[in-house]
Amino acid sequence: MPELLTTDEAADYLRLSERKLYELVANREVPCSKVTGRWLFPRTALDRWVSAGLIAPAGLAQVASPILGGSHDPLLEWGLRESNSGLASLAEGSEEGLRRLTRGEVMIAAIHLHRLDGDDERANVEAVADAPGLHDAVVLGFARREQGILVASGNPMGLRDMTSIATSQARMAQRPPGAGAQLLLLALLARAGITLEDLKLARPAFPTGPDIAQAIRAGRIDCGIATRSVAKAAGLDFLPLVWERFDLVMRQRDYFMKGPQALFEFMRGPSFRDRAGELGGYDVSEAGAVRLVN
Fold first, then answer.
1. DSSP state letters, the chain
2. Whole-number pLDDT of residue 169
3. Distance between CA atoms of 99 and 264, rounded to whole angstroms?
4. Disulfide engineering: 70 pairs with which of 52, 109, 249, 289, CB 3.0-4.6 Å?
């Protein structure tokens, strides 16, 4: 069992007045639990909270905006709404999400990173571990997702892989720089010995997978990389490529906040698993599992 401090012990330990500590408790800004009418504070959680920089020199809390940035995902968007987390979504791509997390502009970043050498299993945790300014980060598993090539129903151009896309000059969607799907595209091209210049790329870049699906349905492009769930929802054909890890990254101090905790609790429930099965292309058996504590 962790060592639990009473209110007066915790106030002394943090060098705060009891009044200030009660303010932090009321705002859910400090890790604690109420047992038989008394507030108790796990010492190890307080240590992480302090080392993460939540307490400024003046003893005031520095709380990130309640925003989940980074990559877009249909199951995640649904989970944010259904869990009543109060977290807003800002889908700009994995690398931009990490940059915003480092600057304190978002509370959580959703990421799925890929390496040119194909060793993607630990790509997310290694990127977070090496990121300057994220020495206090936690990486939680959200899901494994199946990524592939979206094409029109019936695959009229007979596309199979990157080589067939290049030789047929199919109109190929691209994503913004730093987006996980764009990193996957670059990795696939490198393995096939193909460059971006060999493709007939549609411009401008498409922000999300559903944007690519809509463009294919409208006949503006021929193909693009997105998840099986996006293809299924749009009624498009799907050419499977890889299963990837889709993870959530936050600072240790924000792990205990009300919004993230509501989302994490929801991820462990049956309705989350059922929805993942309905959407298709998800494995949520490790949802909520801690993959890295910096």
1. ---EE-HHHHHHHHT--HHHHHHHHHTT-S--EEETTEEEEEHHHHHHHHHTT-B-TTS-B----SEEEE---HHHHHHHHHTT---EEEES-HHHHHHHHHTTS-SEEEE----TTS--TTHHHHHHHHSTT-TTEEEEEEEEEEEEEEE-TT-TT---SHHHHHHHT-EE----TT-HHHHHHHHHHHHHT--GGGSEE-SS--SSHHHHHHHHHTTS-SEEEEEHHHHHHHT-EEEEEEEEEEEEEEEHHHHTSHHHHHHHHHHTSHHHHHHHHHH-SEE-TTTT-EEEE-
2. 97
3. 23
4. 109
Angle CA(268)–CA(73)–CA(135) in degrees, nearest 5? 75
> Are the C-beta atoms of residues 263 and 79 closer than 8 Å to each other?
yes
* pTM score: 0.79
Q: In the 3-class helix/strand/coil scheme, how is 34-86 assigned residue by residue? A: EECCEEEEEHHHHHHHHHCCCECCCCCECCCCCEEEECCCHHHHHHHHHCCCC
List phi, psi (to 5°) of 76: -65, -45
Of 69, 71, 66, the closest CA to residue 210 belongs to 71
CB 30 within 8 Å of CB 24? yes
Q: What is the pLDDT of residues 94-126, one digit of tens each?
A: 999 999 999 889 999 999 999 888 778 899 999
Query: Buried b / exposed e across 148-173, counting CB within 10 Å, b at 16+?
Result: bbbbbeebebebeebeebbebebbbb
Residue 245 backbone phi and psi in degrees, to 5: -90, 130
Average pLDDT of span 53-61: 45
Q: Extract the tokens encoding 285.
A: 């058996």
Q: Is the pLDDT of residue 85 over 50?
A: yes
